[in-house]
Design goal:
With 90 residues, the protein is an alpha+beta fold. It contains three helices and five strands.
């Protein structure tokens, strides 16, 4: 099982959503898939990013809520950002 390591920026992003239980339930489902090395469902539109986030992966949690992470193919997944398109890609 892989370890999830949030960045400082991710922790700040997460605080904005901690009072939205429906979104958190879906986020924790994605955490479990990442931790166990299972594929993200197609409905979450998981894909690699380019530009400033080159080397990162992104998936939709719910609607416009996105999770960005780096899977270093080791036992660690770095959680980079959490937010909407307008918050993350300014």
């Amino acid at each position: 099982m892989k370890e999830l390591r949030p960045t400082t920026q991710y922790k700040k992003d997460f605080k904005r959503y901690r009072n939205q239980p429906k979104k958190l339930i879906k986020l924790f489902e994605i955490y479990n898939l990442l931790r166990n090395g299972k594929p993200i469902p197609q409905g979450n539109k998981s894909h690699p990013l380019t530009g400033n986030y080159k080397g990162c992966m992104e998936c939709h949690i719910e609607g416009d809520l996105l999770l960005i992470w780096i899977d270093e193919e080791k036992d660690i997944i770095e959680l980079v950002r959490l937010g909407t398109h307008s918050e993350l890609f300014v």
